[in-house]
């Protein structure tokens, strides 16, 4: 019996492995990962200081514990370099450079996404960090000195969370983003401006509506002539799904690896989920959709075909400066935000031209309503 192979060891991969093993105890399972294989919560990376966690303490299970718990063969520090669909085999390369082929019965690509490259004049002369996994975070934390000045590029979800966490740990944080307010793609302006006020009150220097035009050692020059001194640079400008492996194998790709409601790619023996997959609603980068994908796919792989359904799944923004929850409307949805309340306590509903409520944002005291409000929202996949 050829094994089920999962490529990746992030939350999507390990949630799938756990859920699959609840349903099938006998199928040989192989997990291949380019990192160390430790189990940890990636969302905790952006608030580790607030949690009082050193990088090692973020690990919930060692690779050996993962392999034992999921009755799996776990291949760590190993890269999949090619998929031979006709032979149903993967070409893998270990850390020492040795390569060999491994056959699969069915294959799951949980390959995730890479940080979007940050390109700016002078960028080649400055080390620009990004944090996308535990290895990245370990290097980032090792570089920091107490009280260091941090230039943070990007005020989206992850950038705002990192800014709040670093400021709370005593670092001098300056944030630069061309958007008019933090979480510009998720929050209506009134709530975004209130988030800006809260982050500024936490000691964060916000340079919204501006961009870095040139970097040099220790100084960032903005488009309005401002010069910001820094000791370290952290880029948080989004992720790009990893599709090169799938594309080289001839699978259908767009922004991500294209999948149907069964999380099946254009090859019926290959599936994809997580940050690297693209559903009919586009890539779904948040934790709760990812876990819903894993549960549905586990059923399908165990012989009970289960189409993915995605009820509204609110995103908790980890910014203690202003507790916030967002349930974004579907990508490209026509409509407008209707905001109620004042100051820190606001509720916003995204309303279509037909009057249908398809998204919401909550802040302050209103965040407790997220579960009840989520039940009123439509399925994300339509």
Topology:
Blueprint: E1 4-7, H1 11-23, E2 29-32, E3 39-40, H2 48-51, E4 59-61, H3 63-69, E5 73-75, E6 78-84, E7 89-94, E8 99-103, E9 106-109, E10 113-115, E11 128-129, H4 134-143, E12 149-153, H5 157-168, E13 172-177, H6 189-201, E14 205-208, E15 212-216, E16 219-222, E17 227-229, E18 232-235, E19 239-241, H7 244-248, E20 257-258, E21 270-272, E22 277-279, E23 282-283, H8 287-301, E24 315-317, E25 324-327, E26 336-342, E27 345-351, E28 357-363, H9 370-374
Parallel strand pairs: 1-2, 1-9, 2-5, 9-21, 11-18, 12-13, 12-18, 13-14, 20-22
Antiparallel strand pairs: 3-4, 6-7, 7-8, 10-19, 15-16, 16-17, 22-23, 24-25, 25-28, 26-27, 27-28
Helix pairs in contact: 1-8
